[in-house]
Every structure is written in structure tokens, then in C-alpha cells.
Amino acid sequence: xxxxxxxxxxxxxxxxxxKLVDKFGIPQISTGDILRKAVADGTPLGKEAKxxxxxxxxxxDSVVIGLVKERLAQDDCKNGYILDGFPRNTAQAExxxxxxxxxxAPLDVALSVDVDKNDLMKRLTGRRTCRGCxxxxxxxxxxxxxxxxxxxCGGELYQRDxxxxxxxxxxxxxxxxxxxxxxxxxGKKGILKSVEGVGSIDDIFNRICxxxxx
Length: 214
Ligand code: AP5
Ligand code: MG
Hints:
By secondary structure, the protein is an alpha/beta fold. The chain is built from nine helices and eight strands.
């Protein structure tokens, strides 16, 4: 299954992607995670990306497209993958279509996770992420058993630098302007599906499985 997850910042793309990885055994390709790793490693790309990410703007298309192309060529993507946070605008979506058509392996589904804008701020300001395994928690909705410690791997939980109120506002604006038009883009291609992203994480996951036919 070759799947794109669409949705605003905080919609739960990463949360649901991790559950899909466990169920279907295909990898999650999160451009945000790849960029955050480059930032943590202090690479030249990471240094350039951090300035942009901290403002809530989009990293240049050429950079992320290059990262995704490289990732899609890896062996573990042969049976499918979950793209999370990519594509982010029409130019990225068109380039992805081009690459996948060259590989003779088009997308199966673009799944939009729909959450009301008013719910997103609390989800994002409350988010904590594990430095080790990238598992997400939320201090309001799904706290870890022990504060600051990952239930899964014992790693340290941290708050993302771009999960500050001002940056979140800009990320939501950027989403509306640049990314939301992709709902139409995939609708016209006939591969768009939508899921209501409000409720318990497990309920949403069950809805997604039903929508995907499992
Ligand atoms: P990225 O990392 O992709 O961030 P994003 O799109 O802003 O999305 P988030 O990761 O914030 O939200 P999510 O939908 O994954 O939600 P999550 O599951 O964590 O991008 C970061 C930056 O990198 C961008 O701003 C840009 O600069 C750059 N970038 C990345 N990709 C790029 C690209 N393609 N092109 C250019 N630049 C790019 O959940 C959020 C919180 O809610 C968590 O705490 C979670 O526990 C909680 N939660 C989840 N589900 C529920 C639920 N059902 N009920 C209550 N709480 C819930
Ligand atoms: Mg995410």
C-alpha cells in the first residue's frame, strides 16, 4: 500500500502512521522526522532547515524532494510506505507523481485526517516526543505513565521547538495556503479518502482500517 497522509499540523498524522507501521509492516516516511534528525545531528542541511522550521515555514522543495526520492529508493519501500508530511504543496505533489510514474508504482490512497482548527492548538502545545523512538504523547490527552519518560523505550521526552504558540499559528496558515489545496489535487485524481480525526486514537485507527478496506 502506497499511502499519503494529509492533514493539518497536529491532526495526528504521525500518531496514526506509527500504528499503520505496526499493523502493515511498511515504513513511515516523515519528512519532518528526517529534517529533525538532520537538525539533531548538526549537519549542514540541519542547520539550514532549523532556521526555517523554527519559523514554521516550508523547507525548499528541492531539498525535501531530494530526501524523499532517496528514501523511496530503499529496499524497505518495495511493498509500500506511508508518506507523512510530504507532499506539502502542489509542486511537491507533482514531482512525487513524476517519480512514482517512472517507478511504475503510483499512489494508492491519499488519506486526509480531518480535525477542527480549534482542537489543534491544544494538541500541539501539549505534545511531547521521545528522543529515542519518536513516539508521541500529549500531556492533556495521552500522557506517559511516568512524566518525561517514554513508555515504549524509556527515552527522554522533549517538546518540539516549533510547538510554540506563535510558530503554530504560522504553521496553520502555511497549511491552509500551501497544503490544503492538495485535498482537491488528490480528489481530482480519484484517490482521496477522508477520516474524521477526532475521538480516541484507537477509534480513529479503526476508522482508517475500515476506510482502507482492512
Ligand atoms: P512536520 O513534522 O511534518 O509537522 P506538521 O505537519 O506540522 O505536523 P505535526 O507533526 O505537528 O502533526 P501530526 O499530524 O503528525 O500530529 P501528531 O500525530 O504528532 O513538519 C515540521 C516542519 O518541517 C514544517 O513546519 C516544515 O518546516 C518542515 N517540513 C516537513 N515536511 C516538509 C515538506 N514536505 N516540505 C517542506 N517543509 C517540510 O499529534 C499531535 C499531538 O496530538 C500529539 O501530542 C498526539 O499525542 C496528540 N493526538 C494525536 N491524536 C489525538 C487524538 N485523537 N486525540 C487527542 N490528541 C491526539
Ligand atoms: Mg508529525
